[in-house]
Amino acid sequence: MHIAIVDDDPDIAALLMLWLEEEGHECVHYSSGQDFIRNVRSKNFDIILLDWIMPEFDGEQTLNWLNSHDDIDIPVIFVTQKTTEDDVAKILTLGADDYITKPVRHKEMIARINAVARRTNPNSDVAVIELSPYRIDSTSREVSIDGEQIKLTEKEFKLVQFLFKNVGRLLSRDHILSAVWGYDLGLNTRTVDTHMSRIRKKLDIDPDKGWRLSSIYHQGYRLEHLVHSSE
Hints:
By secondary structure, the chain is of the alpha/beta class. The chain has two domains: 119 residues, Rossmann fold (3-Layer(aba) Sandwich); 98 residues, Winged helix-like DNA-binding domain superfamily/Winged helix DNA-binding domain (Arc Repressor Mutant, subunit A), CATH 1.10.10. 39% of the residues lie in helices and 23% in strands.
């Protein structure tokens, strides 16, 4: 997962990044809420670890800002020294998905992140994604349309799998490159555009069939499952 750590304490942030990167996650650290919100639209975070107490623009203000922008939908886990029942209730009422108390415990943090990820993105760990007319089988590495198997390269399969695990989310080209290609040397964002064009044709993605793969100028791609009025 791609995780944002928003904390003004560099030592705590460094420890969290170490633990998370050991688990295979990608992390970006922001030392203030203002720094984070200036950059959030250029990234595609799966989860935010948000410190409550920060100077100038704290975690509560940052969460309120996120809640006021409907185009940003990222699960938030508060990291806080506040542990009273009233504090916890306030965090959750404001819209946080969970909380972790300081000092942070390694295994608890990983477990809570995984639990939030499962709740907010139920397709993240499933072996088979079935979204009519598509079926994506991660075990056999096969994609089919109404039961008919579609021939894909390994990279095309990984791209399809990534898109269908993130239906409705705007994914930047850099995030797609990182998730599918791992930033292989010599690659650029045109590689993403070329593969998206192939995927659109091979999977016959079309609004008339209930699906749309949109290219958002200067931002990235979004796969959407459309609901027609006749349905």
